[in-house]
Design a protein that fits this description.
Radius of gyration: 21 Å
CATH class of the largest domain: Alpha Beta
CATH topology of the largest domain: Rossmann fold
CATH architecture of the largest domain: 3-Layer(aba) Sandwich
Strand order of the largest sheet: 1-4-3-2-5-12-11-6-7-10-8-9
Number of domains: 2
Order of helices and strands: EHEHEHEHHEHEEHEHEEHHHEEHH
Length: 351
């Protein structure tokens, strides 16, 4: 029997147990609720300590959940009558879409009925609603979108990836601190933090970068190591790379495009003659391992750092495996208490 919450507000004690609880915007994104439900089914099978609150159109969600042996006894369906479209204006969505699955999921997080929220919807709308409902920490001006990227030596955390086009030196300092806290929570001792720039020399870059560099050098909470150029992002020498959202988004999209180009080039080359086809058979195990290690689905799920609770943005076109990874990131950040850790670091000294 599926329990369906009729109201947007409910008692945590009567709906969910004192376990990890994730509110999922099940309607947003390019692929709709079927992908979300499939991802949720796989996720709870691997993580039985998590309860999911699936937010969206009850008529669509309830039959999908009923078919799942993993979900039908533990998943809660919370009805939301509207959806934020991918092309909706963020401010209009903030004012007019308060019955949307995105808003209701975030409201559940704000009210304490969930520990995290995951959405594949409109990034601008999610950011605007999250800032309004969840709030940033008092000394943080703006949330930053942060995502892990596979590099030569493990992972590098890159932020901001598009939330803030124009940034002050103080914003970059805040991003550096929050990214450093996340990296440390993930097990990296004394994370190396760098600023993305057009050169590694200390005198290069804009006035904003020069001023930000001075702030980072004098912040004892941050292990600042200097500037890094975009062609060295994947070397893995830096654990956290900080930039404004304009350049961060370009760097991310360029790297994704390069990865797709290289993958296609390898596939085309291995198919273009008999010898190459034969070699591809021999190299198949190695190529399979490489594809698995570099599969973008394994790195889906970007954090809105700076908010007082955990909000994770999934790629809008995420498939089942990718959306499941966004849920994994949400659970991990709840377990690691990332917002709490950031709050503790902020309390050490006001930025």
């Amino acid at each position: 029997m599926i329990k369906v919450a009729k109201s947007n507000y409910y008692s945590c004690d009567t709906i969910l147990s004192a376990r990890i609880r994730i509110a999922v915007d099940a309607m947003s994104g390019d692929l709709g609720p079927r992908v979300v439900i499939a991802a949720a089914e796989n996720f709870v099978a691997l993580h039985p300590d998590v309860d999911l609150l699936l937010v969206g159109d009850q008529i669509q969600l309830q039959p999908l959940v009923a078919k799942s042996s993993h979900l039908r006894h533990i998943a809660q369906v919370l009805h939301a009558s509207d959806v934020v479209a991918m092309d909706d204006d963020p401010l209009s969505a903030l004012r007019q879409k308060k019955s949307s699955s995105m808003w209701v999921a975030l409201e559940s997080l704000r009210a304490g009925n969930a520990d995290a929220c995951v959405s594949a919807g409109n990034t601008g709308a999610l950011l605007a609603m999250a800032k309004y409902l969840i709030k940033t920490f008092p000394v943080i001006d703006r949330p930053a979108i942060c995502k892990s990227m596979p590099v030569a030596k493990g992972l590098t955390y890159l932020l901001d990836l598009g939330a803030n086009i124009n940034c002050t030196p103080e914003h970059l300092q805040q991003f550096a601190l929050m990214g450093s806290v996340l990296a440390e929570a993930e097990g990296i001792k004394r994370p190396r933090v760098a600023l993305l720039n057009i050169g590694s020399e200390s005198q290069k870059g804009t006035e904003v970068l020069q001023l930000a560099q001075n702030l980072l050098r004098n912040d004892s909470r941050i292990h600042y190591v200097g500037f890094v150029e975009s062609n060295n992002i994947f070397a893995g020498d830096e654990h956290v790379i900080v930039c404004d959202g304009f350049h961060g988004n370009i760097a991310l999209k360029a790297s994704e495009g390069a990865a797709r180009f290289i993958s296609k080039k390898i596939s085309d080359t291995l198919r273009n003659n008999f010898l190459n086809k034969f070699l591809s058979i021999i190299a198949a195990p190695l190529l399979k391992q490489l594809r698995e290690e570099l599969n973008p689905s394994l790195y889906n799920g970007a954090s809105f750092l700076g908010l007082q609770k955990t909000v994770i943005k999934s790629h809008g076109g995420a498939d089942r495996k990718a959306f499941m990874q966004a849920l994994v990131v949400a659970r991990e950040q709840v377990v690691l208490q990332v917002p709490v850790r950031i709050a503790q670091q902020l309390s050490d000294r006001t930025i």
